[in-house]
């Protein structure tokens, strides 16, 4: 694909975004329902394409987290379609009036939610993102240009065929959702610089991709999705209930950004917590990387390296550190966290409040697993990304995060004095 066809995608997306502006909420619901139906009709083709992607990825030496993210199964497709149903049921934010007020000069002023316009989304071996982004974009009246990883090209083509079928069945332009159908990495840079056609860039991938977007994009970028997530076991925690939360956070699905990567334990309860919890984690296949104080209680663990507490493992690997107290835990998290999801396990209200006030991550938990930082778990439906930046959107980005607003002034032929 050359630069001109990429610009053609941008022009088609811009024109389609104008068409989407005119859709009513019931029309959007009908469109999303059509996408869900089309995914069911295309399931065999989608799974066959994904099987080819998986075979090619394994032959290329991919393993672990990358293969898990690439894989589609009938159950995962069912879950994707269930997320679509959730999004259909959510209120449409477009057109919502915010902060309506009557000014002294007689002007009624409000802010009205509107679509961003055209989204550019760059992601890696996650074919589910193709559907997630498309559904959220269309629900909010946005067009989208997608650039998935080369490992998912066949899967994404098959998913896009279903989405295009749904768009055409509703009389809408296929340009509303488009795929950069080439593995050429130069096109990533070209997309990042299409500021005349794309209104927001959303990268979903590793730290390298996010850094590249921050350095080279001419378009506003939503960054995040890197999850060096922590749980701190406070000395006031209910120790009989700690292990279940830690195991859920680490083991349930270790290849995602909200999985636990570092466990901090107050030295006052470390001897009670770590031997049994360590054994349970090892039985679950978790490799432990422990600080010197934790190693005394976890003799089968590996000594933590200099950079181990800065790693997003995305695997069954867990850093374990014994800290002096709550203040030491807060200091560690401030230094090592990616500000994605961090939590404390405690029954002490004062400790919980100190932690909540001191930790500025996108999601902060008291007595809960970090695995809840997810659009569907938050009641947002499918998410387009998890933002760890502080402007525009934070945490799981659902519908409202894909809108901006315009000021609307309504007068009675009002003039400024």
From TrEMBL:
Species whose genome carries this gene = Ferrimonas marina
Query: Cross-referenced NCBIfam families, in alphabetical order?
Result: PRK00197.1, proA
Q: Which reaction does it catalyse?
A: L-glutamate 5-semialdehyde + phosphate + NADP(+) = L-glutamyl 5-phosphate + NADPH + H(+)
Q: Name one Pfam family in it.
A: Aldedh
* One Gene Ontology term, aspect cellular component: cytoplasm
Q: Could you give a GO molecular-function term held by this entry?
A: glutamate-5-semialdehyde dehydrogenase activity
Q: Which UniProt keywords apply?
A: Amino-acid biosynthesis, Cytoplasm, NADP, Oxidoreductase, Proline biosynthesis
Instruction: Pinpoint the Aldehyde dehydrogenase domain residues.
Output: 11-283
**Record's family?**
Belongs to the gamma-glutamyl phosphate reductase family.
- Record EC number: 1.2.1.41
Q: What is its main location?
A: cytoplasm
PROSITE patterns given for it?
Answer: PROA
Quick one: a GO biological-process term for this protein? L-proline biosynthetic process
Q: What is the protein's known function?
A: Catalyzes the NADPH-dependent reduction of L-glutamate 5-phosphate into L-glutamate 5-semialdehyde and phosphate. The product spontaneously undergoes cyclization to form 1-pyrroline-5-carboxylate.
Pathway where this protein functions: Amino-acid biosynthesis; L-proline biosynthesis; L-glutamate 5-semialdehyde from L-glutamate: step 2/2
Q: Where in the cell is it found?
A: Cytoplasm
InterPro entries per the record?
Ald_DH/histidinol_DH, Ald_DH_C, Ald_DH_N, Aldehyde_DH_dom, G-glutamylP_reductase_CS, Glu-5-SA_DH, GPR_dom
Official protein name in the record:
Gamma-glutamyl phosphate reductase
């Amino acid at each position: 694909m050359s630069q001109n066809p990429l610009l053609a995608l941008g022009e088609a997306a811009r024109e389609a975004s104008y068409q989407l502006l005119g859709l009513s909420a019931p029309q959007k619901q009908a469109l999303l329902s059509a996408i869900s139906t089309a995914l069911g009709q295309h399931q065999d083709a989608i799974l066959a394409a994904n099987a080819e992607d998986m075979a090619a990825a394994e032959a290329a030496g991919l393993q672990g987290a990358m293969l898990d993210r690439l894989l589609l199964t009938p159950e995962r497709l069912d879950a994707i379609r269930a997320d679509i149903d959730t999004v259909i049921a959510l209120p449409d934010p477009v057109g919502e009036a915010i902060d309506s007020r009557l000014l002294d000069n007689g002007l009624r002023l409000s802010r009205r939610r509107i679509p961003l316009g055209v989204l550019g989304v760059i992601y890696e071996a996650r074919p589910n993102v193709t559907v997630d982004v498309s559904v959220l974009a269309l629900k909010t009246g946005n067009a989208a240009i997608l650039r998935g990883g080369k490992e998912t090209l066949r899967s994404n083509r098959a998913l896009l065929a279903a989405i295009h079928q749904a768009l055409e069945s509703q009389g809408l332009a296929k340009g509303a959702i488009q795929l950069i159908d080439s593995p050429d990495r130069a096109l990533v840079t070209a997309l990042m610089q299409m500021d005349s056609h794309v209104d927001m860039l959303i990268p979903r991938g590793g730290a390298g991709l996010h850094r590249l977007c921050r350095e080279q994009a001419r378009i506003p970028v939503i960054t995040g999705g890197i999850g060096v997530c922590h749980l701190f076991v406070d000395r006031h925690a209910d120790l009989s209930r700690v292990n279940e939360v830690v195991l859920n956070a680490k083991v349930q699905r270790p290849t995602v950004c909200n999985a636990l990567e570092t466990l901090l334990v107050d030295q006052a309860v470390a001897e009670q917590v770590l031997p049994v919890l360590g054994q349970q984690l090892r039985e679950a296949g978790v490799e432990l990387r422990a600080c010197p104080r934790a190693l005394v209680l976890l003799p089968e663990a590996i000594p933590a390296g200099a950079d181990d507490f800065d790693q997003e493992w995305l695997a069954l690997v867990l850093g374990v550190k014994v800290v002096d107290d709550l203040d030491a835990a807060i200091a560690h998290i401030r230094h090592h966290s990616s500000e994605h999801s961090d939590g404390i396990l405690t029954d002490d209200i004062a400790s919980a409040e100190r932690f909540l006030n001191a930790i500025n991550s996108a999601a902060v938990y008291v007595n809960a697993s970090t695995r809840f930082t997810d659009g569907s778990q938050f009641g947002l439906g499918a998410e387009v990304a998890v933002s760890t930046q502080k402007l525009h959107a934070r945490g799981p980005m659902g519908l409202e995060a894909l809108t901006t607003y315009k000021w609307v002034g309504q007068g009675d032929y009002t003039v400024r004095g």
